[in-house]
Amino acid sequence: DPIGMESAIFNTNLPAIGGNYATGYAFNTITEALEPLPFLNLSGYAPAAGVSANVKDVARFVITQLKQGVTPDGKRIVSSTNLLKTRKPVMSVDVWPFDLMYPKATSRYTAMGWAIAEQPNGVKIEGYTGGYEGFTTDMTVIPDADVGIVIFTNLDIYSDAFSSIYFFAVV
Length: 171
What we know:
The protein is an alpha+beta fold. It has helices at 55-66, 80-85, 98-101, 162-168, and strands at residues 9-10, 25-28, 33-36, 51-52, 91-92, 107-110, 115-118, 124-132, 135-142, 147-153. The chain is built from four helices and ten strands.
């Protein structure tokens, strides 16, 4: 692995990693209690939910994005030209869920696996939000500020891009 994401695995058999993974939870509206969810093998859904990694390794990915193809260890693994092509806006998306994720944005786009929003103050936000039964994730970069944010939860509160709504509502 050129970035050093040693924990990253394809989700073909997650329990085989020896129990060192989070249990997902959801709020049961009938019992009004949090309940653990069983592990779901989502290998058939890949690439969505197709990879698991810990927050430290995803942070390495974000750092490599911010350094335009240079890993946290200083090794170039992709040219900045090619890396930035993955974050080039290709389609305007002023529709749900992007309007919820970026409520203040003056423009919203998708790119190759990225959502991109330009805020009224000129701040350009690029990120990816995801999740599945019992988990919510958010990965965001603000390239001009050299800021990266990674949020992982093991609670099924995804509810239409939950983590992004609260973060981007204040940016």
